[in-house]
Amino acid sequence: MLDLAYHYFLQAEYAEASRLYEDAIAVDPTDVRNYWYLGLIYLLQGYEEEAQVTWMTGLGQPESVADQHLAHLFQILVSEAARFERLEGYRLAEVIRQYIRELHPDEAALPPPSFPATTPDEVRIQRHSWPGSLYNIKHLGFQPATVIDVGAGVGTFDLYHIFPEAKHLLLEPREEDAPHLEKICTLFPNATYLTAAAGREPGSLAFPGQDGSPRTVPMVTLDQICVDRHLIGPYLLKVDVDGPEVDVLSGATRVLQETEYAIIEMTLFNQFYDVMDLMRQQGFVAYDIVNPVYRMADGALSQVDIAFVKAAGAFRQVQSFYADDHQKAQLTADLEQYQTFMTTYIDERFAAEMAYLQQAWQAGKIVIVCS
Fold first, then answer.
1. CA atoms 315, 132, 189, 197: torsion sign
2. How confident is the model at residue 111 (pLDDT cuts 50, 70, 90)?
């Protein structure tokens, strides 16, 4: 039951995970792990008071070992905060770390937990995440000669971690970010940065500074900057410029000819179809979708990062869903297990859960978390 509960927790299916943890507590109220994760689910959904009550209940099981339990809870919170950070779930990671600071005020002044000096046995990366997408193409054998990061901000660290052998060009028009990028390039010699915007032709761009005052920054084309700096393909291209993606790509027609993988931030309420049309005209097809962002106003899907690959490129050569017969057999077994689980669910839990959720809806207790 606990493995299944944690599986749902990892998939952010919090309603099912919390139900399983509640059932586990009813079966064995002395197993404090269930209180920790149930409270964490409450915390991640914004129910801080419920999280505290749940954890306090666990800390009293039994009260004589409360200090040991507190240390265990602290360890789990630190571990889960680090996991969210690896998946770029920075907002949820900060929610957890804020409570860590409240739980252990004396820990607030300490540096973040350091990574172990030895190689870990396993680092689990969710496939649907930004790093999951990049590690997947690396696993498939892709090694770019040059990584171009357009709209680098204060750094796109997954690109540096996963492709350290490549040359990296970081473009960012905000002068306030230059010190951060300079420090990255000092620590990572394969990277260089340029305080400039990318566009369809060379020139200049009026760009607001952090204080709102207008500034003029250089504008370059990716085609020309790669020639000037002797940056060769195959390229991996990342574009995150909040609107003028088509202009950036229009100044990169030669670069796109040697680009095997391009990941572009796409806004569903603005330039989505324009970018799709341009990439299709350049011979690309959509390959992956990561990092959905939902509007706070109405919960609508606002933007996603879409990865594009060449329609006739290496990433489109595999036609089968399975790599081998073992994978096919494993999926078949998993589907059979799922069917058994759902049959049990229908018999034992469906009616009760429907009543519970209807009651929660009527009481205004259904909260959709956009993260």
1. positive
2. very low
Which residues make Cβ contacts (< 8 Å) with residue 9, sequence separation at least 6?
17, 37, 40, 41
Contacts of 236 (CB under 8 A, 6+ apart): 142, 144, 146, 147, 148, 159, 163, 166, 259, 260, 261, 262, 263
Q: Looking at residue 114, what is its pLDDT?
A: 45
* Containing structural domain, residue 267: 130-313
The pTM of the full predicted model, rounded to 2 decimals, is 0.68
Average pLDDT value for residue range 14-31:
83
Q: Taking all residues of the chain, what is their mean pLDDT, rounded to a whole number?
A: 84
At 138, the pLDDT band (50, 70, 90 cuts) reads very high
User: Do residue 217 and residue 308 come from a single domain?
Assistant: yes
- Does residue 8 sit in the same domain as residue 145? no
In terms of C-beta distances under 8 Å and separation of at least 24 residues, what long-range contacts does 82-91 make, across chains too?
82/113, 86/123, 86/125, 86/131, 87/125, 87/126, 87/129, 87/130, 87/131, 88/129, 88/130, 88/131, 88/158, 88/291, 89/371, 91/371
* 112: in domain: no
